[in-house]
């Protein structure tokens, strides 16, 4: 009997499987393929942890699919067979798709030996290339240069936009913290000045604005965009609304209860009814329409609530009440710092403020000590009274244009492209991404979304979620701007700038005394020129016998101070001229203005220097008001000035390192008179 021959055990191939080594190799290939797909799919601006998570999940899925390749083939075969049972074109399309996937995995299953190793090497090379590309900037390498993205916004909107920009730059940084973009924001102290710069080509015409042009403007209303679009040399891209905020009249609860008598619905009262309801001695404060878009749009709403020539007297009376006590360059934050102090804790003397709902939200958050917006006690200037324990304010929503909606600010992203300075495509992509970020980030700071919906916010119980935002309002702001009173320093104003060598000394901030003086003078002529004439001198003169040199003779200012500002830019120190008597200069200025009618003001920009100032020019000033703005040095502490300061007709104000708009606003408190006209 023949011995039974032992038959070899069947291999894994005979059992329908593959050798263990090939299964492992296929699994690794699956992981690598999935990682490459994950790397490609997450190449957009995703946060690093999301990208890592996506790649890991795809890698796990790829490894499982390639390890159980026979089961995957059977699964897609079953899907293809059943898909064909579906009626019509859908069944054929799905069946074809599942067949393609089945054949793909069948090809993977057929790989073995050398072919499998070759495929593995190719995929490994691709994966290594992707890895090197992803980490082409190693931890020890310097960050690549970030794109510079320049924004423009009003001074009222800029703090919130700056907060959003900081979160955007942080969120879009790579794993090493290298930024894709550096976002800088320009915010002139006047909204009219911002529109003028945009309309005039930014720095293309005098007075030349320092710095490059913005590529994005965050506008406060569609009417503002329309006004600039009609005259600007910039091409305006697709405008996108990112946020809204209704206008409110904010006041203590007790004052609001007296006005509403329990009728609390938004829009229950007009602007006139609410303003007249605030009884004396409480003030109603509104920022200036030419410098503040909040003040401008509130004025538009007030005028719409009292239409027609027959109601002009009512409009003028309301304007006189709300427009007389706020500085030209002050925004809502400045006004609240100036009018809220520790003595107002009871709320008996707290004024009513015209502001946006978002500004009120910031204020009320600051009152509770949990503010995350831009208004804090630290924002108040050192010389201003710091707000004390003032109670939270309550908003009243004036009636809008159609009786249903509320007058609102509508914030829009406005891309700008200058013909002689095109925006790079990469910057345009960043601008689009930032506008999308703004639409989300601003709602966390008290703004409503683009459709007027109020998000869920902490400490927002005072706000009326059912207040409906008026869409595309206002249609025009030109008429209101033309009627807005322009504050004047006087009827005839003479400016004299000290150019002696001591003005080259530095201040506590960057720059020297002369540059601080000319910057303040430019702000002054732009915001508060003479109602009839404004003149510009420098002193001392090159001729020892003369007191000054005339840069601009007395003339009306018709261009918002642009021509005078252009003369101030190139003013240089006269180091060969020594300090001479300030008294001579003041006497010459008084003589120049003495023969003119109306209010006359002489403004001297100086550091006091070594000048000998005595009281002789003050013995007969002929009614001319003398203002000394000092920058560093002994300033108003100069012995001669200290003696002269208490005298009637002389004001000495130490500007030093104060921003120009703050100095001018403070000066206006003492000297300005309102004057109508554009």
From TrEMBL:
Residue ranges annotated as compositionally biased, kind Basic and acidic residues, are 9-21
In which domain of life is the source organism classified? Bacteria
- UniProt keyword annotations, A-Z: Membrane, Transmembrane, Transmembrane helix
**Region annotation (Disordered) ranges:** 1-21
Residue ranges annotated as transmembrane are: 49-69, 89-111, 118-135
Keyword Transmembrane helix set for record: yes
| Pfam families for the chain | SBP_bac_11
Q: Does the keyword Membrane apply?
A: yes
Q: Kindly give the InterPro entries that the UniProt entry links to this protein.
A: vWFA_dom_sf (IPR036465)
- Signal peptide range equals none
What is the name attached to this protein's record? Extracellular solute-binding protein
What organism is the protein native to? Thermostaphylospora chromogena
